[in-house]
Amino acid sequence: MPSAVILLSGGLDSATAGAIAREQGFELHALSVDYGQRHRFELEACRRVAQALRVKQHQVANVDLGLLAASALTGASPAPVPKGRSAEAMAEGIPVTYVPARNTVFLSLALALAEDAGAADLFIGVNAVDYSGYPDCRPEYIAAFEQMANLATKAGVEGTLRFKIHTPLVNWTKAQIIRRGVELGVDYSLTHSCYDPDAGGRPCGRCDACLLRLKGFAEAGLTDPLDYPA
Amino acid sequence: MPSAVILLSGGLDSATAGAIAREQGFELHALSVDYGQRHRFELEACRRVAQALRVKQHQVANVDLGLLAASALTGASPAPVPKGRSAEAMAEGIPVTYVPARNTVFLSLALALAEDAGAADLFIGVNAVDYSGYPDCRPEYIAAFEQMANLATKAGVEGTLRFKIHTPLVNWTKAQIIRRGVELGVDYSLTHSCYDPDAGGRPCGRCDACLLRLKGFAEAGLTDPLDYPA
After folding, report:
1. ipTM of the complex
2. pTM of the entire structure?
3. Which among A122, A222, B115, B149 counts the fewest CB atoms within 10 Å?
4. Is the CB of B156 less than 8 angstroms away from the CB of A135?
5. Residue B229 included in any domain
6. How many angstroms separate the CA atoms of A141 and A138, rounded?
7. What beta strand segments (E) does chain A contain?
8. Which residues of A fall below an 8 Å CB-CB distance to B?
9. Nearest-CB residue to B108 (from A68, A101, A113)
10. What is the rounded average pLDDT of the residues A133-154?
């Protein structure tokens, strides 16, 4: 069975991307990155999702992107997470939750792990439709990373592996992602999307991530299994 | 004064690249990566070199590439470091000291830091002449990373920064690097190159890194200030 590396963030998208990779017949090496997020609930969700995906191994890499000051998700004095924004407002520009070079750091670590494990295939749950503000979620970025990866590595240069970055969700709406995930048996109650959960990990229901997720479930005609404030 | 990020490994090449960047008028943000190297002397050398370069700040990012098993420089049961190899043997293939995607991980972190600091320029002391086995030291790799970096980032996409990866040493022999460094006042006694130092940090004099370094000093008509075994 061929191996693939799946980047798991604990969220809805990467859980679905993992289920798609598994359905395609890959044995999964899951990688999550602890980069100094504001809260630990994402990593707990990563562990739950990895277990549900029956991955061969799940590794958590610690990377102190806390060296960055500018993002709402890292740094000592992060900017406040926006709340209650309309879909139009979210679609404008790059959100304050942007973390410099985040997916590049994540994919670089996934590439290292993939080469070490002899896996040519990397899966990442990026999406360029519903939340298009992040530059490192776009197909042209992914293509450039893939090209670089095959020049960067021993296996790529020697031709023993031809690295491919799979982005199965890139052109789907959130509702399409959720419908496909439900078909594949993804248990979304295990996932965590909120940028600003309460002390117990309960989602706020008002940040961009919560609003986008709730809209996706509504458009899919389904109910989000998470427990939101009334 | 424009800012640049310099990747410091503690070695001779990155110390020289840093001196070149400073001479070009950049204010330096130094980044070193603690990736689970076999010994700590590299990081001590990084701190000495950063101080000598009078950098604005020096950050050490912890990244556990210890998740990789395959390299002689990381992992729980690393392969032995080769000793006493001829220049011809070194030039053949990719050395066992290759760490999967190392420069890609390092440059990704440097890119994150550069965007955060508003620095368009990144310096890395890669060299494709004297030790050409590493795929991620070649100009075609660097060009692909640069292209990817400008698609990956908010600043690149919005056009506020045009990221450039500077590799001033890429086409120089080790002797040329040392001569230029001496001209610029680099104190090579502060640097550390050995893959297999003794318990006190003294270089072995026989691994690829030591042999290449000693050959460079000899060809430059200079004496390496480090203390080698007789």
Report:
1. 0.90
2. 0.91
3. A222
4. yes
5. no
6. 5
7. 3-7, 27-34, 57-62, 121-123, 164-166
8. 59, 61-65, 67-70, 94, 98-105, 108-109, 111-113, 115-116, 135-136, 138, 140-141, 144-145, 147-149, 151-154, 156-158
9. A101
10. 94
